[in-house]
């Protein structure tokens, strides 16, 4: 196309998102999709491109209250969809650098906007970016939002396992965690402790005894790592959304210390029930045919 890329719009990214939307509409009758962009010009570009397809199903979905939405970072609040397509939009400038002006993300509290955007997904977040995460020179900025964005892009680019390998941290002894793990093992679960990413470590990973190779439930505790997180978003919303959205965990549960102290057996029973539900969900997903991920046509 002859569209000029500006610092605020990214036609290539818009085209890739439109292709992804078309593929998903080709694969299922009424996919649950939202598109979130970093700024208004990119939002307008993506919506225009989608409407220009003249695809009656896509247009009808755009016009429906609970259908396909395209929103910028400031305007996405309560809307949730199974899949969020996330358009970073900003790209290299003439000098080949990635500019550090990411609009609302740079402002104080900008990291909350990022958290809101990535927590709109019930199942998965697909990130569209036209630069490598390490090209974002966040050390030149004071913005917490930019630092969080870089880590989120690294996580999306590398995948959880590789990200964890490159972000080593020694496991910390935690009596509370070990106590819960021991009780769950006694109830028949296969349990690993302190698994995964630097900032998104999972306290307990549970597999059912009858299928020990199928980690199905991630359990988060309110231990030291939880207390060290600054905001309620960081402590409660972001880890759950990253685990279920970006990493595709079948189940994510929390255990609060007061609940454990009051009724440890009740907590064990709840987690064992959730483990079986999550395992069954994942089994069903493995048996079904997943839709094609690439562009249609």
TL;DR?
The chain is an alpha/beta fold and 297 residues long. It contains eleven helices and eight strands. β5 and β6 form a beta hairpin.
Unreliable sequence segments: 226-238, 287-297
Trace the largest sheet across and list its strands. Answer: 2-1-3-4
What's the shape?
globular
* Cα separation of the termini: 18 Å
Kindly name the structural category: alpha/beta
Helix content: 40-55%
| Computed CA radius of gyration, to the nearest angstrom | 21 Å
* Overall tally of structural domains: 2
By CATH, the architecture of the largest domain is named 3-Layer(aba) Sandwich
The main pleated sheet reads as: 4 strands, parallel
**What's the total number of strands?**
8
Order of helices and strands: HEHHEEHEHHHEEEHHEHH
CATH fold assignment of the largest domain: Rossmann fold
What is the percentage of strand-forming residues?
A: 15-25%
Q: How many distinct helices?
A: 11
The first-level CATH class of the largest domain is given as: Alpha Beta
GO molecular function: helicase activity
Protein name: DNA helicase
Keywords: ATP-binding, Helicase, Hydrolase, Nucleotide-binding
InterPro entries: DNA2/NAM7-like_C, P-loop_NTPase, Restrct_endonuc-II-like_dom, SF1_C_Upf1
């Amino acid at each position: 196309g002859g569209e000029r890329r500006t610092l605020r719009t990214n036609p290539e990214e818009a085209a890739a998102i439109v292709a992804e939307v078309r593929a998903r509409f080709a694969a299922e009758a009424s996919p649950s999709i939202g598109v979130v962009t970093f700024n208004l010009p990119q939002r307008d570009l993506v919506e225009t491109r989608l409407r220009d397809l003249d695809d009656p199903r896509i247009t009808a979905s755009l016009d429906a209250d609970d259908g396909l939405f395209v929103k910028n970072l400031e305007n996405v609040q309560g809307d949730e969809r199974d899949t969020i397509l996330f358009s970073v939009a900003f790209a290299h400038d003439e000098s080949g650098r990635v500019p550090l002006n990411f609009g609302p993300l740079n402002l104080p509290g900008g990291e909350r906007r990022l958290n809101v955007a990535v927590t709109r997904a019930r199942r998965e977040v697909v990130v569209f970016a036209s630069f490598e995460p390490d090209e974002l020179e966040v050390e030149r900025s004071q913005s917490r939002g930019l630092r969080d964005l870089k880590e989120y892009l690294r996580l999306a680019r590398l995948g959880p396992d590789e990200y964890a390998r490159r972000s080593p941290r020694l496991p910390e002894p935690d009596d509370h965690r070990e106590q819960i793990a021991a009780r769950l093992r006694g109830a028949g679960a296969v349990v690993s402790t302190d698994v995964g990413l630097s900032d998104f470590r999972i306290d307990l990973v549970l597999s059912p005894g009858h299928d020990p190779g199928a980690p199905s439930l991630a359990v988060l505790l309110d231990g030291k790592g939880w207390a060290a997180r600054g905001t309620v978003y960081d402590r409660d919303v972001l880890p759950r959304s990253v685990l279920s959205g970006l990493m595709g965990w079948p189940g994510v549960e929390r255990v609060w210390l007061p609940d454990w102290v009051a009724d440890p057996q009740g907590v064990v029973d709840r987690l064992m029930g959730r483990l079986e539900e999550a395992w069954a969900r994942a089994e069903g997903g493995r048996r079904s045919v997943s839709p094609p991920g690439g562009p249609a046509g």
